[in-house]
Amino acid sequence: MTYPPAEPPTEGTLDPDDWAGLRAQGHRMLDDMFDYLATLRERPVWQPAPAELRAAFRAPLPRAPSSLEAAHNRFMREILPYAVGNAHPGFMGWVHGGGTAVGMLAETLAAGLNANLGGRNQVPVEVERQITRWMRELFGFPDAASGLFVTGTSMANLIGVLVARAAALGRPVRRAGVAAEPTRLTAYTSACAHTCVAQAMDISGLGSDALRLIPVDDDFRMDVDALRAAIAADRRAGLRPFLIAGTAGTVDVGAVDPLDTLADIAADEGLWFHVDGAFGALAMLSPELAPLLAGIERADSIAFDFHKWGQVPYDAGFILVRDGETHRAAFDASAAYLSRETRGMAADSPWPCDYGPDLSRGFRALKTWFTLTVYGADRLGAAIARTCAIARHLARRVQAEPALELLAPVALNIVCFRYRGTGDAAADDRLNAAILLAVQESGLAAPSSTRVRGSLAIRAAIVNHRTAPVDVDRLCDAVLRTGAALAATAALEPHPIP
Ligand SMILES: *Cc1c(COP(=O)(O)O)cnc(C)c1O
To answer: 247 CB less than 6 Å from ligand 1?
Structure first.
């Protein structure tokens, strides 16, 4: 085979005339990000952006070009300092992963390759299949299990619901729609489940009213007797139960539903058993934590994120389905331009696009493959276990401080606590909401809030591998200091509670 000589014309293309100049600028950009990651502790976790700075992002569409250097300088000055800060070790708000330099580099390679992972005969698709194989191994799923990268667990839960719907109603539902069904399908999840489970019921046409929110026990785990009773009541009412969605790591307190019992009930009742393991599922990487998830290996589908505890840069959600054929039957389609061959570029079917709604798809698998390959499962598991140890350290400190109160047991990596006020519920909520905002604005630490049995809680979710005991101590000190100062100012302004 002969190829044309390498003197490519760049006239009219978007490639540079001066690759050497681009190379030097590219190295400066990479160096700036290494510096950012290496010196995170010297920065505030988060800071509000000045209004003038935001205003500059309302400029009209640029018609003329400008230099890469100028755009990069703006990024460094006006974008990087004003992100939410989840790479920072002091970030404990919400369940966000910290990312890694390895993931960043892999993402750069993926962008350079610009592979479209919808399908076709290419090794990038094989890399995604490799991740599926590894996840089968991790979760004890059979060889027939399928997997797919998606944006996040919100989308993975939606796919789980859609596969469960197709499993219950068969292929015809894809044409006739649920409106043609004489009997309404009902699903079951805990009152502490993520709201995206209800949203998945809504989007799938089943309706969020058909999702029963089962009460939880003292440890915030789904009450299995209440679950059995709800299923029986719906059957008596002529409805058709089809799905139990358990949670491995609830978003507010980190509770794990009794997955093994949920699997028993699903088997007895003939229901699909889905697990929302958004962050918690990857506890399977830690031999110390994996037993807490006993029963997850019996799920029909598991939704989780590599971008949370897995530390892969955003976004990298994943759905694993025990029966790959049922999964494919919920999404596959035929279109002439997607026809399959046994040779050439249209070979190697089935393709990722047969397992979900996306046709064009990025190479999320690459940054995940690099992360798992470079760090290894054991080291990632140890980093996950360490976040739980740090959460226990924070919980012990909270319990040792008379001014603080622990609001929920610490099952994994989330600590919900509050500053003890006067005992007046509304005033104490206002006090803790004010403490939360002051601590966030201090840039010292970034906790978030939730409600635990009606009370506003300061919530520290330790997800970032960079977070150390010193960071949770700093949070604790800041809450104590701010709480004492605010409690002393008698007239606390009523604050909107987040
Ligand atoms: C974060 C989270 C979700 C949503 O996942 P995304 O990746 O943000 O879409 C769902 N469920 C739980 C338990 C979560 O923690």
So the answer is: yes
